[in-house]
Amino acid sequence: MFLILNIQGYGQDNLSVPIAPKQNRIPEKFIPKNYNNSLESLKENFSKQMMKQAAKQDKIVYEVNQKGKWKATAESIDSHQTPEWLQDAKFGMFIDWGLWSVAGWAPKRSSGAMYPDWYESNMYTDSATVKYHEKNWGKAFDRDDFIPLFTASTYNPESLVKMANEAGMKYIIPFCKHHSGFCLWPSSYTHRDAGEMGPKKDLIKPLVESCKTHGMKFGFYFSIEEWEYPTINENGHLEIRQWGGKTKPYTKDLEKKLTGKIAVKDFTQDYIVPQATEFIDKYDPDILWYDGEWDDTAINLQSYTIAAYFYNHAQGRKDVAVNDRYGLDKEGKTLRFRRGDIFTSEFHENDDKLDKINGHAWEANRGISQSFGYNWQDTNDNVISTSEFVKMFVNIVSHGGNLLLIVNLDGQGALPKLQENRLKDIGKWLQINGEGIYGTRMYSTKSEGQISYTQSKDHKTVFAISSEWPGKKLKLESVTPKEGSKIYLLGIKKDLKWHYRQKEGLTIELPDNLQNKPNRPCDFAYTFKISI
């Protein structure tokens, strides 16, 4: 077993940048917005029409899957191959942004991770968050009172894509719909979206367009579960479907938690499947990134149906991928790290399984801090330093993984300066060392002391990435260069002297001028290119 994410090198870089925490609180003279439609009136005025439209979309999905190569079965899903471009990409941007970003706070878990993106639920259920919320926002401030404060006034998708490019990222996945059901795009299957509420504009379309312009792959993060959803029972009355599928009676206090949701008879068939597949039709993503699946089966959530439609929609045009968060199997065991084109590790979760996946593509999800979602508490003192960030990234890649870096926009859509600095730093490092990262695969030896290894896809080149400057000589036991091989330090044009002896291994000599730090190609994590 190895732990790749538990690196504690915090607070050493960019200390000249003044970044003081600014706590978010209820605005002065805040007046809660009263929405015209109650859940009952939404049911009376929109439910029948929406379910009729959903039935048409479901029919299209069924027909496409019947005729198409990919079927809504475990066997068919398992036969899909991970796209080569995703294995080559290594680095992506995960935009954790939504209503929770307005509050921007969370208590620390025992794992060290913090989940501000669960604020809208925890403000009612978690004792520490309840206490914090009552003090800073007030007892009367409900979940949906955040909607009018979520204006996206500083959101700049073009700038975000350019920043991702500068950082060396190859794909972008925004949180299109998290667990409260608020969509960042105008959806036909809810009024609870950015087109009708909050910003009153499509936040996804310009991001997709910018990705296409800059040659960036785009992913669709979609929660296939929600904390609560209004449903219609067999007597035609409202009830509330809870996370995992259980129901409870409708009560009036739910009105300011479920604003804009249109009640349906079948949560998955009438809502989840048509909403997800409509998005696929409209925005044509390259990745489908499921979440929220851990308390219900893949069969109940119909995640196979959506994935098959996604595959068939792209068939013959482009290679696409779905992650591993399909739900539970028939025995109630998670399908994570068992099914999907790319497996997903979250902070420390599933680290113990990485040595058992036989080279399957996987992805680490974490940020420069411990926070999943904007957290006003993040400062230079509790975010990972650039040098440790690079070590973490190199370690992930040497074990065959990608890093999907969580970027936490603030409540209005701005990228915090602290995160921007780190992205620029890693981009500068990748400009020099990217050949040892992009398009590489695992080497037979993943690491050796302070060295992490990668290799080219044709197995003709090994990259030895040293986390520290090795001094005048670098000794490697796990590499046998071919006769006459030229060995380079990436960023330096002149090849290096070396010798190899059977018992001693490879010794690479580093010239005197490179012992002076200003003469080195970068400040940390030095990549040696070796032909084998």
Blueprint (SSEs and pairs):
Elements: H1 39-67, H2 74-78, H3 84-89, E1 91-95, H4 100-103, H5 119-125, H6 127-136, H7 157-167, E2 171-177, H8 205-213, E3 217-223, E4 228-232, E5 238-242, E6 247-249, H9 267-283, E7 287-291, H10 298-301, H11 303-314, E8 321-322, E9 343-346, E10 362-367, H12 386-398, E11 401-407, H13 417-433, E12 440-441, E13 447-448, E14 451-456, E15 461-466, E16 473-476, E17 488-489, E18 498-501, E19 505-509, E20 526-531
Parallel strand pairs: 1-2, 1-11, 2-3, 3-7, 7-8, 9-10, 10-11
Antiparallel strand pairs: 4-5, 5-6, 12-14, 13-14, 14-15, 15-20, 16-19, 17-20, 18-19
Helix pairs in contact: 1-9, 1-11, 5-6, 7-8, 7-13, 9-11
Give the fraction of residues assigned to helices. Answer: 25-40%
Instruction: Name the CATH architecture of the largest domain.
Output: Alpha-Beta Barrel
Tell me the CATH topology of the largest domain.
TIM Barrel
> Which overall shape is indicated by the principal axes computed on the Cα atoms?
globular
**Unreliable spans:** 1-20
Average pLDDT number: 94
Number of strands: 20
CATH superfamily of the largest domain: Glycosidases
Give the biggest beta sheet. Answer: 8 strands, parallel
CATH top level class name of the largest domain: Alpha Beta
CA radius of gyration is 25 Å
Structure description:
It is a single chain. This protein has 532 residues and is α/β, with parallel strands linked by helices. The protein has 2 domains: 51-436, Glycosidases (TIM Barrel), CATH 3.20.20; 443-531, Immunoglobulin-like (Sandwich), CATH 2.60.40.1180. 27% of the residues lie in helices and 17% in strands. It has 13 helices and 20 strands. It has helices at 39-67, 74-78, 84-89, 100-103, 119-125, 127-136, 157-167, 205-213, 267-283, 298-301, 303-314, 386-398, 417-433, and strands at 91-95, 171-177, 217-223, 228-232, 238-242, 247-249, 287-291, 321-322, 343-346, 362-367, 401-407, 440-441, 447-448, 451-456, 461-466, 473-476, 488-489, 498-501, 505-509, 526-531. Strands 8-7-3-2-1-11-10-9 form an 8-stranded parallel β-sheet. Strands 12, 13, 14, 15, 17 and 20 form a 6-stranded antiparallel β-sheet that branches. A hairpin with a 5-residue loop joins β4 and β5 (238-242). α1 (39-67) crosses α11 and α7 (157-167) runs parallel beside α13 (417-433). The longest helix has 29 residues, at 39-67. The radius of gyration is 25 Å and the shape is globular. The two termini are 28 Å apart. Mean pLDDT is 94; it is low at 1-20.
